[in-house]
């Protein structure tokens, strides 16, 4: 185990930070940069496109630098500080080119920018200033839609019952569950049901699921059982890693229940095309 965390101080990367003070939100900008995240880019590209559609519908131009890659979180949470710093520095250079607000369709990656980049570059004063500026202009997608765009959603879908899952870091670092709940509440024909494992980890945890597959598998099985037993017809989440893990477990269990990214769910419900079937 020591080899897996050879460069990590005790608990340094595994303790939730103190809850920050209420954030002061800016006026809606004319343009933003979308940081698509590596998981969305590779496994759920439609969610990234739907995030762009949601933003553009609110009158916001979206820039998508093709050179962007990973935020560096897998290396950081595994204790590989130097490797995480190299990846993070590359993203910082890319995102600083425009200086635009950064919208991220993932609370965990958004949390990496806002909360962990400052720790990663604490020993580089000049870089730290750039990192702090990036943190200030970084927003998780649902947060940006709700608090900056002040979006008012018109539900055009059939009645449906859904369950919400939020990743651990998204919940504790970015309050993503609160933003998502408020957006879902705007959808008149959507009923959000609570499930008894809503605040518990799905077992993904990035590289945790690789290092400890038995523990991870048991955790996601508890999560999937809770979702199925909730009475919902599907699950929505704003984090691609959790979505990949939960859907993978459901497929392995040969269950028909599935989840999808919240961006795609919101776009489908409010766009009017293929707006869902009665559930």
Automatic annotation (TrEMBL):
Domain Cysteine-rich, first and last residues per copy: 32-114, 162-246
Compositionally biased region (Basic and acidic residues): 16-26
Region (Disordered): 1-26
GO molecular function: oxidoreductase activity
InterPro entries on file: Cys_rich_dom (IPR004017)
Cellular component terms per the entry's GO annotation: cytosol
Name this protein carries in UniProt: (Fe-S)-binding protein
Organism encoding this protein: Marinobacter flavimaris
């Amino acid at each position: 185990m020591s080899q897996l965390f050879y460069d990590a101080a005790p608990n340094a990367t595994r303790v939730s930070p103190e809850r920050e003070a209420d954030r002061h939100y800016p006026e809606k900008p004319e343009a933003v940069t979308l940081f698509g995240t590596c998981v969305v880019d590779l496994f759920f590209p439609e969610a990234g496109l739907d995030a762009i559609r949601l933003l553009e519908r609110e009158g916001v131009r979206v820039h998508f630098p093709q050179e962007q890659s990973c935020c560096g979180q897998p290396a950081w949470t595994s204790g590989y500080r130097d490797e995480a710093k190299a990846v993070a520095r590359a993203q910082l250079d890319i995102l600083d080119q425009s200086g635009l607000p950064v919208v991220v369709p993932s609370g965990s990656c958004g949390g990496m920018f806002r909360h962990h980049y400052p720790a990663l570059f604490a020993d580089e004063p000049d870089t730290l200033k750039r990192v702090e500026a990036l943190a200030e202009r970084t927003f998780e997608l649902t947060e940006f839609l709700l608090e900056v765009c002040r979006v008012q959603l018109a539900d055009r879908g059939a009645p449906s019952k859904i369950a919400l899952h939020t990743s651990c870091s998204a919940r504790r670092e970015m309050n993503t569950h609160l933003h998502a709940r408020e957006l879902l509440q705007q959808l008149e024909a959507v009923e959000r049901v609570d499930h008894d494992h809503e605040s518990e980890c799905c077992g993904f945890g990035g590289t945790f699921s690789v290092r400890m597959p038995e523990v991870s598998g048991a955790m996601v099985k508890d999560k999937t059982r809770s979702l199925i037993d909730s009475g919902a017809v599907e699950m929505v989440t704003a984090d691609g890693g959790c979505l990949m893990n939960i859907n993978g477990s459901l497929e392995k269990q040969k269950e028909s229940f599935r989840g999808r990214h919240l961006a795609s769910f919101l776009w489908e419900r409010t766009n009017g095309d293929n707006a869902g079937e009665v559930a």
